[in-house]
Amino acid sequence: MRIQLSQRLNDLRESGLLREARTIRPSANGWCEVDGQLLRNFASNDYLNLAHDDRVIAAAREALDEYGVGARASALVCGRSEWHSQLERRLAEFEGTESAILFPTGYAANTGTLSALIEPSDTVFCDRFNHASLVDGIRLSRARLRVYRRDRLDALQRELMSADTTGHKWIVTDAVFSMDGDLAPLSEICDLADQSGADVIVDEAHATGVFGPTGRGVCELTGTEDRVAVRIGTLSKAVGTQGGFVAGSSELIEWLRNSARTQVYSTALPPAVCAAAVRSLELIQSEPERRIRLFQLSDLLRAELRRFDLNLLEQSRGPVIPLVLGDPNEAIHAARLVEQQRFLVAGIRPPTVPQGTSRLRVSVTTAFNEQDIRALAVAITRAVSELTMQQKT
Ligand SMILES: *Cc1c(COP(=O)(O)O)cnc(C)c1O
After folding, report:
1. Any catalytic annotation for residue 237?
2. What mean pLDDT is predicted for residues 274-278?
3. Which CATH architecture has domain 18-47+288-392?
C-alpha cells in the first residue's frame, strides 16, 4: 500500500483514541470472561437477557438442524425462508403495522431505507447525536443535510419553515440516543413535521422491547406511532438476536423490498436467527415483567450513583446510563478500574461521542439483581475517586 497507515494509527494512539477489539466469552447468567477474568457484563445491549435464553436457543437450534446455517442468497433470489416470512409477519403484528421487512443488520436497515426514500433534492433534518448509520443513509441519498439540536426545537422550527427546498422535508431521529440514554421529543417533533409538511423517520434500535406499554418503543410510549412515517428497529439489542427491520404500510415495505440496496444486494439473515427472533418477540410479549424489572434495576442504579454524587446525565431514561468524565484516557482508565472489581462497563470516546465528553457507559440488563447493582455503584464510585486521586498526585 502506498499510503502511510502507521502515521494515522500513531496519531490515534497519541490522542488516546486507538481502539482494540477484545475477545469475550459470554455466558447465560450475564457474566462473561475477558482476558481470563470473569466479569459481570454491564456493557451489553441484551437488555432483557434473551440472547442466551434456553427457549430462544432451542428455536434457533431446531431451525439450524432443518435449514442449515447460511441463507444462501438475498431475499429476492432464494434467501427468504418460511422463518423470514413468519418473522416479518410477527414484526408487523408486534408493531401494529400492515407490513414489515427484514435487513441483515440495523445498520443496513438505516442506510438502505434512508437512501431508498430520500431524493437528492430533499432536505433532511438530522439530530446532531443520531447514530452513524442514519447519517450514512442520509449521505448516500445525496440530499441536503441539516443538523439540529433536540434541546433547541425552536431553531429546528425556524429552519423547517424557512427551508429553501424544491424537494421533500424529512426529520430523522434516534428514539433513544445510544450514548446519552435520553429519548427524542417525538410529540414535539411530529407537531413540527405537521406544521412544515415534513415526514418523520424514527430509529427505535435501543427502544424496541424496552420502551412503551407493550415494548414497541418510544413511538408507542409517546403515542406517535400513527404520526411517524417510517419506524426502523433492530433485532440485535433487546431482542437478543441479529438483524434490522422496518415496519410500516404495505406500500412502504413494497418500495423498500424493490429499492433498498442493503436488502436487495445482501444475503438474507440465517433462517435460524429468524426463528430465534420469532421466539424472542413472543417472550417479549408474554413476559412484560422483564421490562418492568429492567426499569426497576436501572432506576436503582441511577439512585445509587446519585447517592455517591456522580455526574450522571440527568436526561437518561431506561437501561443506558452514561457517566461523563471528559478525557478519553480517563474514560478508558476508569473502565479498567471498574473491571478490576469484576464489572465490564464500556469506556466511550470520540468519534462516538463529541470531544471532551468521553464517558463510562453502563447498560443494565435483567441478568442481574439489586445486590449486583449496588455493588456496581460502589465499584464505579471507587474507580472514579481513585482516578481523581491519581490525577492529584
Ligand atoms: C445499534 C444501533 C444501530 C445498528 O443496529 P445493528 O443491528 O447493531 O446493526 C442503529 N441505530 C442505532 C440508534 C443503534 O443504536
Report:
1. yes
2. 98
3. Alpha-Beta Complex (3.90)
